[in-house]
Amino acid sequence: MNYRNIIVIVVVAVALVACGGPEERKTKYRARAQEYLEAGNYPKARVALRNVLKIDPKDADAYFLFAQVEEKEKNWRNAVSLYQEVVQLVPDHTGALIMLAKYYLEARLTEQVVSTADKVLAKDPQHPQAKALKIAVLAVEGKLPDAMTKAEALRSQFPTEPDVAILLATLYSQQQHYRDAEATLQRALEAHPKDMDLLNNLNTILVQAKDMAGAETVARRMIEAEPTLFDHRLRLARFFDTQGAHEKAEAVLREAITLDLNSEERRLMLADFLSTRKDHPAAEQALLEAATQLPHSTKIRFGLAELYLKSGQDAKAREQYAALVKDYKEKPAGFEAKV
Which of 38, 240, 257, 318 has the fewest CB atoms lying closer than 10 Å? Predict the structure, then answer.
């Protein structure tokens, strides 16, 4: 290789580095994470975010997205820790502060709610979410008339802001003014038709108002907005179950399985439902089909063994545990089956 070829290689390498530098790669991974999050592909979102943090361990936006992934998977403690990490990196990060204040409100830590909301208001005195959080504290403290007056005034100022609408609708529902609550949420939904918090609250209020047809419509609307998320179908199945419409509930759970044939959770949920609402043979059949289609799933096999124990079929349960011990010997599943 002569020196001219070496120069060409060096120039090409430098050009490649310039085109794919750390900032560009970080932006690419973060954008992918956002796409995966919106698509409901949380494992891939995690991978993309870890790649961002490998490049820049202090990327606050990556931690913020990571917190949202944890929320989607109901890892609430992890989400709070990640939002706190964001605030450590960027003390006036509005999104993280608002989310932390919501968690504090849920825990009835009213002083922390107010102090956290005030940090947002110091930066933006008219911030609607921060104002709504402080009004919610008034309601928690039992100052309902004051909270109602301020919430209605805030709604006049921000008629379609989701958090403001949810606050006012919650206050209306506490007084059993369900139609006012519904109208408040519907107005906000006109501007934010796929906002899950608005839809979730509307569904709850319609159930409280005993408007079951409306509640079912909203539940199906949530499925349409996020078709890959199991929680929405599970909500609809539970809704049908509470109405005594067990066949409809079963149909929803079976449909959820067809959308993710590798999901152990969905198959176990169906089996549990069948065991409770139908009979043990139906649940057994569902688990046997699952074991055939997911032959390497120890969760399904343990579920089948537990079903046998529950239905008094101890011999079949022992067979399942013995098979697990044989197939997994020195592995965790084998040790668990021995116990």
Answer: 38
The Cα 198–Cα 176 span in angstroms is 18
pLDDT band at 253 (very low <50, low <70, confident <90, very high): very high
Structure confidence by residue, pLDDT tens digits, 163-176: 999 999 999 999 99
* Full residue range of the structural domain in which residue 287 is found: 229-339
In the predicted model, what is the mean pLDDT of residues 111-132? Answer: 98
CATH number for the domain harbouring residue 338? 1.25.40.10
State the total domains in the chain.
1
CA distance 177 to 210: 13
Q: Please calculate the CA angle 31-226-190 and round it to the nearest 5 degrees.
A: 95
Q: Are 61 and 30 in contact (CB under 8 A)?
A: yes
pLDDT bucket at 339, cuts 50 / 70 / 90: low
CB atoms < 10 A from the CB of 183, how many? 13
Classify residue 191: in a domain, yes or no.
no
HEC states along 204-251?
Answer: HHHHHCCCHHHHHHHHHHHHHHCCCCHHHHHHHHHHHHHCCCHHHHHH
Residue 5 has pLDDT above 50, yes or no: no
pLDDT of residue 262 exceeding 70, the answer is yes
Q: How many Å apart are CA 327 and CA 320, to the nearest integer?
A: 11
The CA distances from residue 17 to 10, 13, 14, 32, 201, in Å, are: 11, 6, 5, 20, 49
* Residue 1 confidence (pLDDT) above 70: no
Residue 162 in domain = no
Any domain includes 124: no
Cβ–Cβ under 8 Å, residues 30 and 48:
yes
Structural contact between residues 237 and 264, judged by C-beta atoms closer than 8 angstroms: no
Percent of the residues in the chain that have a pLDDT greater than 90, as a whole number: 85
Structure-token pair, residue 89: 């990196």
